## 1
Amino acid sequence: MPIVEVHLVEGDHTAAEHARLLALLSRRYAEVLASPLERVRASITLHRPEHWAVGGETGGPPAPYFTAIVLEGRPVEQRRRLLSGFTDILVDVLGVTRSRVRGRIVQVHPDDWAIGGVPASAARQDEIAARRR
């Protein structure tokens, strides 16, 4: 289930930076959640410069935004590690100013997430139960 999406302005960063970002975010996600790497999904959404504003102004310095999706029940410590770890990676890889990075964690109930068409509550029943203990 681990999914992370990063929003960036088209042309602010290179394809090599994008590839490195996706690889590092994926590894960090797997590490923090103790999840197999093959379960992690990472993507970048590129926005045209004229469709991106910070403080109501277009054309300013890069200000990335990320969303990470996790199943409900993940401890707050893990969620905080994701927020700080993803921010660290964006700063390191893209060279952006830390205070301009924004991110959020979205928790999804296991009944509302499908894995191969099956609710996660059924597909990962044992893992979810163990996390609640």
## 2
Amino acid sequence: FWTSVRAAELRGYDPTGKTVRDFYQGDALAFVLDNYDQGVAHPSGIVDFSVDIAADDRHVELETLFLPLSADGKSPTHVLVYGHYIEK
């Protein structure tokens, strides 16, 4: 059962109300912002298949979905981000 509390535990922080710039710097920030840009540019979103070790060190993030959302069905106003984790 997945909850936002569990997601925060895996990340090592709760991103609620924060921006991407609050958590990333340098090359990592550029990489993450590029994923958001690509997700917004593709109406069906994108999947980033980069593998990343979670902050709790027991889980691995296999892929991340970036899905653009739009109130008017045309212009994205939000991006839903979902990370798929497995236990090591």
## 3
Amino acid sequence: EILDDLGDLAMYQALLEGRGVRGVVVDCADCGEQHFHEWDLLRASLRQLLDEGQMRKHEPAFDPDPGDYVTWEYCRGYADATLNAG
């Protein structure tokens, strides 16, 4: 599953980064806050999860603009629509 997520992440970044999207926002079940992950940070975290079985803690983004980040579900829907459009 993690390898699939890494492949999806690469596709999402390729499709969305040029449109100004800086990364993915995740609702954290543990603290109840949103976490903003830039593309490279999320990729590194997923690789660490794959290699070590856990994700490392990271410094939160400094004053992120929520408009620069989208959810994983948005990425999936955008990719599906883009690929189906031809």
